[in-house]
Amino acid sequence: xxxxxxxxxxxxxxxxxxxxxxxxxxxxxxxxxxxxxxxxxxxxxxxxxxxxxxxxxxxxxxxxxxxxxxxxxxxxxxxxxxxxxxxxxxxxxxxxxxxxxxxxxxxxxxxxxxxxxxxxxxxxxxxxxxxxxxxxxxxxxxxxxxxxxxxxxxxxxxxxxxxxxxxxxxxxxxxxxxxxxxxxxxxxxxxxxxxxxxxxxxxxxxxxxxxxxxxxxxxxxxxxxxxxxxxxxxxxxxxxxxxxxxxxxxxxxxxxxxxxxxxxxxxxxxxxxxxxxxxxxxxxxxxxxxxxxxxxxxxxxxxxxxxxxxxxxxxxxxxxxxxxxxxxxxxxxxxxxxxxxxxxxxxxxxxxxxxxxxxxxxxxxxxxxxxxxxxxxxxxxxxxxxxxxxxxxxxxxxxxxxxxxxxxxxxxxxxxxxxxxxxxxxxxxxxxxxxxxxxxxxxxxxxxxxxxxxxxxxxxxxxxxxxxxxxxxxxxxxxxxxxxxxxxxxxxxxxxxxxxxxxxxxxxxxxxxxxxxxxxxxx
Amino acid sequence: xxxxxxxxxxxxxxxxxxxxxxxxxxxxxxxxxxxxxxxxxxxxxxxxxxxxxxxxxxxxxxxxxxxxxxxxxxxxxxxxxxxxxxxxxxxxxxxxxxxxxxxxxxxxxxxxxxxxxxxxxxxxxxxxxxxxxxxxxxxxxxxxxxxxxxxxxxxxxxxxxxxxxxxxxxxxxxxxxxxxxxxxxxxxxxxxxxxxxxxxxxxxxxxxxxxxxxxxxxxxxxxxxxxxxxxxxxxxxxxxxxxxxxxxxxxxxxxxxxxxxxxxxxxxxxxxxxxxxxxxxxxxxxxxxxxxxxxxxxxxxxxxxxxxxxxxxxxxxxxxxxxxxxxxxxxxxxxxxxxxxxxxxxxxxxxxxxxx
Amino acid sequence: xxxxxxxxxxxxxxxxxxxxxxxxxxxxxxxxxxxxxxxxxxxxxxxxxxxxxxxxxxxxxxxxxxxxxxxxxxxxxxxxxxxxxxxxxxxxxxxxxxxxxxxxxxxxxxxxxxxxxxxxxxxxxxxxxxxxxxxxxxxxxxxxxxxxxxxxxxxxxxxxxxxxxxxxxxxxxxxxxxxxxxxxxxxxxxxxxxxxxxxxxxxxxxxxxxxxxxxxxxxxxxxxxxxxxxxxxxxxxxxxxxxxxxxxxxxxxxxxxxxxxxxxxxxxxxxxxxxxxxxxxxxxxxxxxxxxxxxxxxxxxxxxxx
Lengths: 523, 356, 306
Description:
The complex is a heterotrimer of chains A (523), B (356) and C (306). Chain A has 523 residues and is α/β, with parallel strands linked by helices. Chain A is built from 18 helices and 21 strands. Chain A folds into 2 domains: 15-243, 3-Layer(aba) Sandwich (Rossmann fold), CATH 3.40.50.300; 261-522, Rossmann fold, CATH 3.40.50.300. The N and C termini of chain A lie far apart (52 Å). In chain C, α3 (59-83) packs antiparallel against α9 and α6 crosses α7 (161-171). The relative contact order of chain C is 0.20. Chains A and C meet through α2 and α3 of A and α7, α8 and α14 of C.
């Protein structure tokens, strides 16, 4: 079944990649990659974060130049000098992190990605036509800044479709969509393939790949490890190919005791402090001792704002808006809340949860300078910072959470994503907090690290702490949560027991089924 | 041929030390070329410029006198730039400090006591901090760019000084020269030895040590560094951005003000229209050359002080414009910034073939 | 010439160097780069223009050489900030210090020399019109150039593809790079344009405004030009209005001094600097206005991954 060295017959494939390699300095991001895509088929590219998927598609799209190897397009060996050249050939790409310009209009954004011959005429008109034709409604004159994430993705897709691509590359397209939006996207993709277009589909959502794709190439550590028919595989066997070993099974014991409310949000209202931010409206939530509550939602619906409001990075005039362990702390600073035995892990590791060019011990100080460790302060005013103590904590975290770095006290930025996340989470868990709020606990980390982090969260909750997880990953939510709520445009739904909730129901809530009409129109 | 930067996994410790040395070397080489272009013997000119000031007691003392204000201002700016706060109006804050501090000798000439000198220092610091508070307030309250406001205030402060010494504060017995009364007694900074080295140098050195300790060993220094490098991480740590802006402006303003009052109560001895050869701007270079590290600033301050004396030297001995000092200083900052890239990046040249 | 005409004329002459320097910086900032070196580039332009005019006897060659000098020194800035991704604030400062120093060094020999003035272009017939004739059709050529440049920049940014690309690069360099636009090359070109107009602004000072070389003759105009760009919220039409307003303030101070108003001259001289601070405050109180136009990646270095 594993057969990376597939036989090639000329003309059969739209695109072939042969022995393609990419070196970054001494690091080999892609090693002798072979890939073949047929017209009219959806081809999945699978792999963990850091497996080399992005590097590979960037080379196909001309954004990176290969160190060695060949790209064969319709039986001709070609050199893709830049993305414009790729577009000329008929290769379009929808980026995971959209390449859009907030202060420009939809039309301007699309025009920037079109070759000269396609820009002429009434572009706005053509955008409107094509987008309604494919069921992707867009207002050509809207500023991107005012659009939702789903609408932004439509811009990316429409600008590819305008070029009538032969091959469409999609990088994690459903990561930002509700299940319903994802279904609509699958409809569009199926229509495209029926018209003869090929799709290279990057994802780590295995169920989705099984449902949609005709072919799959699996990468690990920069090498092709398997080429399979996804319909003939199970999610478990696909995962095994990606990770290289069987994934750690998370141990979780249900029907445990929960205690009193340790974290409460009562009518939390918080106007956004940036022009394009999201206002929080009447958020109510209770998290009890011993349970994990998860907040699902599509990116950009107020998750970051909610996290800041709970952590105290933004304070609230209303004391009772946030109550930690029976102390009203709306106006309390983040350190005041930490002193109530709360701990926080933000979504972004680099630049928020940690400072990339500071050593790990400094990063421990970052979130723990105001709380004592084993009864001792970590710094003593002008007498200075207790570096010995910080070293001890660092060793403790590295050991308990398997943080691997080149040197013991390396700069945070030199750690891999998974190791840095283990460090950032471990730094807070090491305190044994009574309340933990964590935003996107395993975003962009490898399966091993994700399993370790999730297990640690479950273990902490079973010891009697209250944990609030904010996540966009439904698999993660079902794996962790006892109860689930959904956030949409700054409003939080009711909280449901996890076992009573289906994906479809969550999807409806994600698209705002619970929003109050008065607020919905005001936003 | 194309230049490619590759991020290093860790900042290079070697380049951190080597970069300023390399920058100085490049400055000296290009400086020699400039001298040669002006028809001067380059080696001789460079000798006069960089070595001569260190060959006799008199000019060594002059170097120390010039280094004192550069170090005082430079350590404040080093801290400020670390926080990514851009106070570039130290020259104006120096002037404001000199003005406020000079009120004691001008209005209370008969108050002769060590306390009078202390009061002058205090007023100098208040004056500098007060002028620095304006850009801080405008940045925090209105989000106005502090670079432009702090700089505009330099012109305003200098014009104010100009008006005062030609008008209300002019020495009535001074033959109509634009100067204030000459300070005397306890209104002058104590001098040491037989030369002109004064208390200000020792104040500067002591404060450099204090700020070094603060930046490297205390939570306050950590706060400043974090706010400067990653403001969101600073908020996560519970550090206040506005507090840091205030702290940095008031600190660097007070130190510039102190430098100002020490200049007029020391080497100059009275107010006059021009009280500083752009110490406030040169201190920006001092801060960068000193790696934004207060101890490094001491060495950088000495080097830049040499460039002033050397500039005077080549003017006297070779008849070259005293502007050479400013050119050397500008080049030095330029090369430091250039070489600092090597701390965080490896530079490679990509040939036309595309091979790394 | 009537007093009214003289005042308007002097306002225009005082405003033109500000407009010239600022219109270039506006383009630079629209591309996402903050160049604080204007003062230094202007000083280099002023001295180079003056020197070339002295050597060749032609003011026009002086103007040309001033522009070249501005471009040359701006390329130093571009090399550091774009190719070596140095801190833009500090690098701009170094350009200012270097430019002021170097201009003083070069200009040392020219102090006190009588200058060569760029001739006025009086458009025949039209310039004889009553009231407006001299004002609109009897200016020096650089005034016309400054206006043409402003109109040209406004049109380019708003209506042309190049303008769209410049705005895109300044908005989000990662996206622009992902779409295949050469971010660094676009920025190099914009910085060169900024150097060109700063050089031109310098030449205006030493060949038109006061046709001689005086040390530090830029007198903070480069910094005021920077403030004007912020004040304009990156819109060329507002920039022109702001430049003439500031030119007016500048002249107001001079006239008040000449007429012996009982205010010390130093206070009047400080008016432009004070006005700059006030203008920056006024514009900042209306934050929504600047949000959309502010280039989102202003001042940030960009290193493409390869």
